């Protein structure tokens, strides 16, 4: 069956990617800048999608690997925005596992690079996290609520006040009647 072969090939490629990144990223953790950082925007979608794999071992490795990648120094002014945009593009996935996996990645990446993240990129991350607070899947909403606390710690009182107003508006919205 061609579909089965393609699925196996994709799984194999994701497994190789995860293993490679899992072994390479720790080498760069204490460096000023990671030599593979420019390639991370291309690798990130497959890595985050690997978290939704049915193979529990691969999924677990992909989660750990995503954390390592988020901690990888990405100081080049062009790389970090591309990585954040790539993470943003993955959020439209049908898999709630993938949508949820973006949040810890973003938390770690933004916290690690908080002094070099451009204001416009931070605004995009904030908007993304707030959008995921309204996700249809409760697990994604829970992850987003944790991410909000990290963003408030980084961004400070201004973000907290904006969110307070937004949450008050949400609370005033009547719940639609069913049936």
Keywords:
179 residues; mainly alpha; 8 helices; flat
Structural class: mainly alpha
Main beta sheet, described? none
Overall pLDDT, averaged? Answer: 83
* Strands, count: 0
Shape, per Cα inertia axes? flat
User: With helices defined by DSSP (H or I, 4 residues minimum), what is the helix count?
Assistant: 8
Low-pLDDT runs of 5+ residues are none
Strand content: under 5%
Order of helices and strands: HHHHHHHH
Helices and strands in order, then pairings?
Elements: H1 2-28, H2 40-50, H3 56-70, H4 79-90, H5 96-112, H6 119-132, H7 138-155, H8 157-172
Helix pairs in contact: 1-2, 1-3, 2-3, 2-4, 3-5, 4-5, 4-6, 5-6, 5-7, 6-7, 7-8
What does this 3D model show about the protein?
This protein has about 180 residues and is mainly α. The chain has helices spanning about 1-30, 40-50, 55-70, 80-90, 95-110, 120-130, 140-155, 155-170.
């Amino acid at each position: 069956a061609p579909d089965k072969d393609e699925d196996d090939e994709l799984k194999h490629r994701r497994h190789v990617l995860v293993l490679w990144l899992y072994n390479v990223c720790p080498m760069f953790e204490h460096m000023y800048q990671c030599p593979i950082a420019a390639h991370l925007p291309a690798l990130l979608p497959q890595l985050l999608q690997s978290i939704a794999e049915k193979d529990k071992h691969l999924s677990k490795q992909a989660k750990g690997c995503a954390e390592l990648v988020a901690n990888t120094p990405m100081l080049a002014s062009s790389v970090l925005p591309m990585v954040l945009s790539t993470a943003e593009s993955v959020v439209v996935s049908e898999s709630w596992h993938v949508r949820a996996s973006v949040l810890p990645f973003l938390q770690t990446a933004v916290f690690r690079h908080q002094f070099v993240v451009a204001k416009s990129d931070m605004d995009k991350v904030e908007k993304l996290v707030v959008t995921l607070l309204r996700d249809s899947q409760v697990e994604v909403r829970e992850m987003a609520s944790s991410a909000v606390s990290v963003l408030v710690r980084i961004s400070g009182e201004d973000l907290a006040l904006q969110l307070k107003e937004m949450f008050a508006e949400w609370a005033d919205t009547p719940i639609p009647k069913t049936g």
